[in-house]
Amino acid sequence: MTTANQGTRVLVLNSGSSSVKYQLLDMFDSSRLAVGLVERIGEETSRLKHTPLATGGASREQNGPIADHAAALKAVAAELAADGLGLDSPELAAIGHRVVHGGLKFGAPTVITDEVMAEIERLVPVAPLHNPANITGIRTAQALRPDLPQVAVFDTAFHTTMPESAARYAIDAATADEYRIRRYGFHGTSHAYVSRETAKLLGKAPEDVNVIVLHLGNGASASAVRGGRCVDTSMGLTPLEGLVMGTRSGDIDPAVTFHLKRVAGMSVDDIDVLLNKKSGLVGLCGDNDMREIRRRCDEGDEKAQLAFDIYIHRLKKYIGAYYAVLGKVDAIAFTAGVGENAAPVREAAVAGLEELGLAVDGELNAVRSDRPRLISPEYARVAVAVVPTDEELEIAQQTYALVTPALNS
User: Fold this and answer.
1) Of 76, 110, 200, 326, which has the fewest beta carbons less than 10 angstroms from its beta carbon?
2) CA atoms within 13 A of residue 219's CA, in its CB half-sphere
3) 8 Å CB contact between 74 and 41
């Protein structure tokens, strides 16, 4: 049996194309020992911000060029070592990596082997922006600690329980199979964590609860969770499908792409940039920060108001659709940056859905807190909750649960 600080620490790494987010957690009590971010990797203006929570010390910053992910992780290791939390510590049990796309093969956290890496690489064509960065982070961490278990926790894993009726697109089956075209879904670690925490908030087991989870940040997704298992989610082959997002269009008629190519002369790459980076809220009104959009709405800005209305309209459509998919709904849970902090979004999303048993209490909705909480009145048939997500803790928990049997065998 493990005891405090004896092989109970997990380092969580989230490697982006030009950044590395990290947290060191002690799974004995789920406490955070250190958190940090390296950004603008490969630029002259690289920045590392490190906060040593275990010692209560002030945050430290490094500014200056960090050439690549290897240099970034070495700098992170040095910062941790300065706090007595080095990667060479015997108290470090494993490193958990966020990997965006695991396809259908990985429905659970997985110890990384050469075969696993080969499969993650094989999935690069369906996650060209994310999986390469994840691969780089994994290889760099392996070089620093080749003796330590490295675990991949996949964004898509939670959604592998979707039935084929939800996951399949209605296109030629042979073509879909050959090119692995189907709905995979993303934000899975968040949806898993939030759906489970919502059940806990209701005092029930996850298998006894049906939840609609609304992960609303700059990227946004919805999921229908029946008894702890995802049965539908809004993102698809890529994170472009579904809700209106900060810079992504969400659902759109596929023929728009043909039209833009034929009539506007736009290339496939041009259309990709348009739909992923110049659409959504920023495309509608020039802002993708919901706080700024609400400020503009309050000042009577018509473009901002229309953008907000379109955002809410799409959100309501998914709430209604997933209500129908589930048949019975026990709770709707708002999470992520917008979901946790934008009271007007929560109020507007539920307004007019009283016949579905949904309502928001204005006073409860206005309260700001970092704790899970109900914002629906007692009479509401369906609970409306705000549940702060914690993807790093979810990754750490899944990683530690996977390697603990090996540690204790």
Assistant:
1) 200
2) 12
3) no
Q: What is the pLDDT along the chain (409 residues), one digit of tens a residue?
A: 343 445 899 999 988 778 889 999 999 999 999 999 998 888 899 999 999 998 888 899 999 999 988 899 899 999 999 999 988 889 999 999 999 898 888 989 999 999 999 999 988 887 777 888 889 889 989 998 999 999 999 999 999 999 999 999 999 999 999 998 999 999 999 999 999 999 999 999 999 999 999 999 999 999 999 999 999 999 999 889 999 999 999 999 999 999 999 999 999 999 999 999 999 999 999 999 999 999 999 999 999 999 999 999 999 999 999 999 999 999 999 999 999 999 999 999 999 999 999 999 999 999 999 999 999 999 999 999 999 999 999 999 999 999 987 555 4
Query: pTM for the complete prediction?
Result: 0.90
Helix axes 188-201, 391-408, angle to 10 degrees: 90
Per the listing, tokens 């990797």 go with 41
Report yes or no: 22 and 36 within 8 Å, Cβ to Cβ.
yes
CA distances from 40 to 35, 43, 65, 217 (A): 17, 6, 9, 21
Q: Which of 155, 287, 330, 390 is catalytic?
A: 155
388 three-class SS: coil
Strand 210-216 and strand 331-335: pairing? parallel
Is residue 253 annotated as a catalytic residue, yes or no? no
Residue with tokens 């093969």: 105
Please say whether the beta carbons of 332 and 350 come within 8 A: yes
Residues in contact with 58: Cβ distance below 8 Å, sequence separation at least 6, in sequence order: none
What's the Rg (C-alpha) of the chain?
Answer: 22
